[in-house]
């Protein structure tokens, strides 16, 4: 059975600043945990959104079970939490399980559309 492409890349405390905060492109970060049922339900939808966005925006994930310091620094109180960044600054946040492509698409792209206008 072929392995599906992973369009959502993992970042850690060591790579977060370079890949997220220093990015010249808009970035969405899912703070998640592999033990979180809602995160597992969200994964295929987030993969679809990330694949559709392609190179326009980057979509990353942070496993808060491994990188608790990042979760604390960005005040993540529950999973899944999507945080959108532009120019290293948080420009949007969506918390909780909303596993539909439309909801995620809006959560990920709306903050960047508002900045552009």
TrEMBL record:
SUPFAM superfamilies given in the database record: Thioredoxin-like (SSF52833)
Name the record gives this protein: Thioredoxin 1
GO molecular function: protein-disulfide reductase activity
Pfam families given in the database record: Thioredoxin
CDD domains, alphabetized: TRX_family (cd02947)
Location of the Thioredoxin domain: 1-117
Biological source species: Granulicella rosea
GO cellular component: cytoplasm
């Amino acid at each position: 059975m072929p392995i599906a492409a992973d369009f959502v890349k993992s970042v850690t405390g060591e790579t977060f600043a370079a890949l997220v905060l220093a990015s010249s492109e808009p970035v969405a970060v899912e703070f998640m945990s592999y033990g979180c049922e809602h995160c597992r339900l969200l994964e295929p939808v987030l993969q679809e959104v990330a694949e559709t966005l392609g190179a326009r925006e980057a979509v990353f994930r942070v496993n808060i079970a491994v990188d608790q310091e990042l979760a604390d620094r960005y005040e993540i109180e529950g999973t899944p939490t999507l945080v959108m960044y532009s120019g290293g600054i948080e420009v949007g946040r969506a918390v909780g399980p909303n596993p539909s492509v439309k909801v995620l698409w809006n959560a990920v792209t709306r903050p960047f559309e508002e900045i552009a206008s």
